[in-house]
Automatic annotation (TrEMBL):
Domain of life (superkingdom): Bacteria
Taxonomic source organism: Sphingobacterium micropteri
Primary location recorded for the protein, binned into one broad class: cytoplasm
Annotated function: The RuvA-RuvB-RuvC complex processes Holliday junction (HJ) DNA during genetic recombination and DNA repair, while the RuvA-RuvB complex plays an important role in the rescue of blocked DNA replication forks via replication fork reversal (RFR). RuvA specifically binds to HJ cruciform DNA, conferring on it an open structure. The RuvB hexamer acts as an ATP-dependent pump, pulling dsDNA into and through the RuvAB complex. HJ branch migration allows RuvC to scan DNA until it finds its consensus sequence, where it cleaves and resolves the cruciform DNA.
Pfam families in the record: HHH_5 (PF14520), RuvA_C (PF07499), RuvA_N (PF01330)
Span of domain DNA helicase Holliday junction RuvA type: 1-61
Keywords, ordered alphabetically: Cytoplasm, DNA damage, DNA recombination, DNA repair, DNA-binding
InterPro entries reported for this sequence: DNA_helicase_Holl-junc_RuvA_I, NA-bd_OB-fold, RuvA, RuvA_2-like, RuvA_C, RuvA_C_sf
Protein name: Holliday junction branch migration complex subunit RuvA
Residue ranges of every copy of the Holliday junction DNA helicase RuvA C-terminal domain listed in the record: 151-194
The protein's assembly and partners: Homotetramer. Forms an RuvA(8)-RuvB(12)-Holliday junction (HJ) complex. HJ DNA is sandwiched between 2 RuvA tetramers; dsDNA enters through RuvA and exits via RuvB. An RuvB hexamer assembles on each DNA strand where it exits the tetramer. Each RuvB hexamer is contacted by two RuvA subunits (via domain III) on 2 adjacent RuvB subunits; this complex drives branch migration. In the full resolvosome a probable DNA-RuvA(4)-RuvB(12)-RuvC(2) complex forms which resolves the HJ.
């Protein structure tokens, strides 16, 4: 529903901020990782994860797209709610969490407050393949600069759920055979080969 909010930081705490966007103050829960990146700013942009439960509607904000993406992966695991996901991102960096999940390091995940051995194993079991598919640079923010046609097609294929290395290989062969294809033509041709 919401992608990001960009506005003036009216209030900052290690657990939440109030962001004034167009005269409306939004109470947004944040991780310590995000707090450390925005604590000296007066204006900021937070990527939003809007969580709706029976008894609440809560905004969670992250300074990078990658951290939000990891948060959404974490809360997709049964038994990991938004508060636990935020706790995980506050305890260790998103890069350390991603590395621990990909490498199956249960003890690293288990060190986080509120995560027992079974929860740590479940997180790794459910997310290891997803994070491996995204590749090691999944947490690096996407460049704002205009993407080339093959890069745009690759981004679309990865968002559709295809592994980055596999999609890259197919796209490279398609671009070599016909470098003048549009993004749509590349995606359609790639879908036939993947």
């Amino acid at each position: 529903m919401y992608d990001y909010f960009n506005g003036k930081l009216v209030f900052k705490a290690p657990t939440h901020v109030v962001l004034d966007v167009g005269g409306i103050g939004y109470h947004i829960h944040i991780s310590l990782t995000t707090f450390s990146q925005i604590k000296d700013q007066e204006q900021c942009k937070l990527y939003i994860s809007f969580q709706v439960r029976e008894d609440s509607q809560t905004l969670y904000g992250f300074s990078t797209e990658g951290e939000r993406q990891l948060f959404n992966h974490l809360i997709s695991v049964s038994g990991i709610g938004p508060n636990t996901g935020r706790m995980m991102l506050s305890s260790i960096t998103p890069e350390e969490i991603q590395s621990a999940i990909i490498n199956g390091q249960v003890q690293v995940i288990q060190k986080i407050k509120g995560i027992g051995p079974k929860s740590a194993q479940r997180v790794i079991l459910e997310l290891q393949d997803k994070l491996k598919k995204q590749g090691p640079d999944a947490l690096i923010p996407l460049p704002i600069a205009k993407q080339s046609v093959p890069e745009e097609a690759l981004t679309a294929l990865v968002m559709l759920g295809f592994g980055k290395p596999q999609a890259e290989k197919v796209l490279n062969s398609l671009v070599t055979s016909d470098p003048e294809q549009t993004v749509e033509q590349l995606i359609k041709a790639a879908l036939k080969r993947l």
